[in-house]
Amino acid sequence: MHNTGRNFKPIAQLKKELDLFSFYKLNVFHWHLTR
After folding, report:
1. From CA 29, how far away is CA 35, in angstroms rounded?
2. Domain chopping of the chain, boundaries
3. Rg of the chain's alpha carbons, rounded to an integer?
4. Euclidean distance between the first and final Cα of the chain, in Å?
5. Which residues have C-beta within 8 Å of that of residue 9, sequence separation ≥ 6?
6. What distance in Å separates the CA atoms of residue 20 and residue 32, rounded to the nearest whole number?
7. How far apart are alpha carbons 18 and 35 in whole angstroms?
8. What pLDDT score was predicted for residue 31?
9. What Cα–Cα distance (Å) separates residue 35 from each residue in 3, 22, 27?
């Protein structure tokens, strides 16, 4: 789960983490954009 509403992460970092999700065949990404 990512909570970018509280802890900012650069887009490049999010893309790297999504690539890792894909590598490990994870199919759920829980993302909080706002508080």
Report:
1. 17
2. 2-32
3. 10
4. 14
5. 2
6. 19
7. 22
8. 83
9. 8, 27, 24
